[in-house]
Amino acid sequence: VWGYVTLASGAAAITGIDPAFTSTSTYSCQATARVAGGNILAVAHTSASAITINSASGTDVSVVDWLCVGK
């Protein structure tokens, strides 16, 4: 499952991932800023169908691509 999002105040919540994964421990995600030299990003699994992306610097990033794989 993949998508993109714009961070607001250094964070974004992606909900309603469909199909949902079986649990928070059965999938892995990666996020990448589209800007050169982009901020370090962290992805938190908030549920089997939702993640939160946070910028380590707490600043906005124009667009972030994200990808989650698992079962």
Question: Could you write a compact summary of the structure shown?
Answer:
This protein is mainly beta and 71 residues long.
Structure description:
This protein has strands at residues 2-5, 11-14, 27-33, 41-47, 50-55, 64-70. The chain is an all-beta fold.
Write the layout of secondary structure elements.
Layout lengths: L1 E4 L5 E4 L12 E7 L7 E7 L2 E6 L8 E7 L1
Antiparallel strand pairs: 1-6, 2-5, 3-6, 4-5
Spatial strand order of the main sheet:
1-6-3
| Total helical elements | 0
Uncertain stretches: none
What would the principal axes of the Cα set say about the shape?
elongated
Secondary structure tally: strands: 6
Which structural traits does this protein have?
71 residues; mainly beta; 0% helix
